Amino acid sequence: MDDHRMLVVGEAVSALFQLVRSPSRCSVLSLQKKCPLTDRSSGQKAALTIPFANILWAELSDHDLAIHYAKPTTKEVVRAAVLSCPMGASHVKEAPEWIDKLHAAAYGMSQRQKRFKVLVNPAGGKGQALKWYRQDVEPIFAAARCRIDVEQTTHQGHAIELAQTLDLDAYDVVACCSGDGLPHEVFNGLGRRKDAIRALRKIAVVQLPCGSGNAMCWNLNGTGSPSVAALRVVKGLRTPLDLVSITQGKRRTLSFLSQSVGIVAEVDLDTEELRWMGDTRFVYGVLARVLRQTVYPCDLAVKVRYEDKEEIRAHYGRALRSNPPRGPHPDGDPDEDTTSQHEPSGQGLPLLKFRTAMDELPADWKIVPGDKLGNFYAGNMAYMTADGNFFPAALPNDGTLDLICVDGNISRLSAMKTFLAISSAKIFDLAHVSYRKVVAYRVVPKGQANGLISIDGERVPFEPFQAEVHQALGTVLSRTGHLYEAPGVVSRP
Ligand code: ADP
Ligand code: MG
Questions:
Q1: How far is CA 64 from CA 45, 102, 184, in A?
Q2: CB 79 within 8 A of CB 139
Q3: Ligand 1 center to 186 CA (angstroms)
């Protein structure tokens, strides 16, 4: 903790108590007006307003009340700080109840003192993950009195192994200090277990943005800052997440983020030389290729849920107005959640309803002409990069994947418009972009010896593949409990 500033509340403690008594009426713990605070170092009266969202923990030791909170030091950074208030004997008795109320206001439905298995990828992004974890993440988790067990990954696939053997009863969350690669591995490790369904329901997978692609964190925490993300994860609500089975030959993997063929896959996988551009490389790379008007012919078949844009908008609007699904008791074991109680434990992944890409195509799937396909992109989340809101109708657990196709032979003007629309959620409204919500699809590349397919940003063999959504199979933490942070096709009230 780098801020030891002591603020003395002294006689104002009862006024302080008064403020938290009816927390529903105020969203900030305001010490400003009613409590004459004194900053011990300067002896001056200090003013302080702490949003409940930033309160991490409070505790009493002897006659000292300590309030730990996340203090913004710049727009992008918060640091663990502590307020210390010596209390008169008369108030000490009242304090435990007051602390309870403060915690209730600070955490709401979010589980307190989460137990974290932290995985740090020293090879992710700019190689700074361990430094950022120590400096930005750990102090916030520690101040919130979370239990932490940290491990660095030593090789590719290590997070799969760790998730496969994780003690489910010892942890609530696996937190990946990495890019999107480690969460992908963790979901797959949990998915390979004999008790995959229970593991994926019980363990929330989160990302602290320390890689070059941090889409997961942008979608669920709305930030690319490790310290702000740490605070939001501490306060995060358990949220079911659709996961997608990808089958290729006899292999089955889980995807949580995206699948792409053609232009986007090329950019996802093939722009190492553009890494210095950061996130911009992604949109730049897409533009460069769209302008070259490359086509990637393939056969595409889809099991559609919605393909009319107005229907999709209405579907999204309903989700926006709905309440988040009721999670487990805020302080409780997620096993007490009624949904998991009825879940047969000891089950591996759900069966594939639509079999695999090697089987006959189900009769009710729709064939989409793919001879001029320039870009095939399917997403389970909205943001694919910090400024790339490709799927503004995506929802965490509606049982569908969002799918966009752009013709490869559109005019340069249309290509330019597509590019400009990506960062503003307007891609949805472009006439030359088809937007579907599907529960399954199959892609069979044609007339190309080799090309690129990307699953969650990882390269897979250039072979036919099939995708099938499993509604709410996985678990993450989010701010709202049921929505992504990206602007959607219907604005929030
Ligand atoms: P980035 O966003 O920079 O790609 P990720 O966290 O997504 O970062 O990880 C990229 C890859 O690094 C993953 O495939 C992961 O398996 C791999 N990896 C994990 N630990 C190590 C390690 N110690 N050395 C090399 N690669 C690793
Ligand atoms: Mg969805």
A1: 20, 16, 44
A2: yes
A3: 12
Specify the pairing of strand 37-39 against strand 64-72: unpaired
Measured from the CA of 154, which atom of ligand 1 is nearest? 23
Q: If we measure between CA atoms, which residue out of 237, 238, 220 comes closest to residue 229?
A: 220
Give the position of tokens 């700074």: 128
10-64 pLDDT, tens digit each:
444 555 555 555 544 445 565 544 444 445 555 555 556 778 899 999 998 887 8
Please give the C-alpha separations between residue 415 and each of 126, 286, 294, 410, 489, in angstroms, as whole numbers.
Answer: 32, 10, 11, 7, 21
Instruction: Please identify every residue annotated as catalytic.
Output: 180
Read off the amino acid at residue 231: L
Q: How many angstroms separate the alpha carbon of residue 156 from the centre of ligand 1?
A: 6
Give 338-394 pLDDT, tens digit per residue.
Answer: 344 444 556 899 999 999 999 999 999 999 887 767 678 899 999 988 878 889 999
Residues with CB under 6 A from ligand 1: 121-125, 153-158, 178-182, 185, 211-213
Ligand nearest to the CA of 482: 2
Which single residue is written with the structure tokens 């966009």? 404
Supply the pTM of this predicted model: 0.89
Total residue count of the chain as it appears in this document = 493
Report residue 399 as tokens: 């049982």
Whole-number pLDDT of residue 341: 41
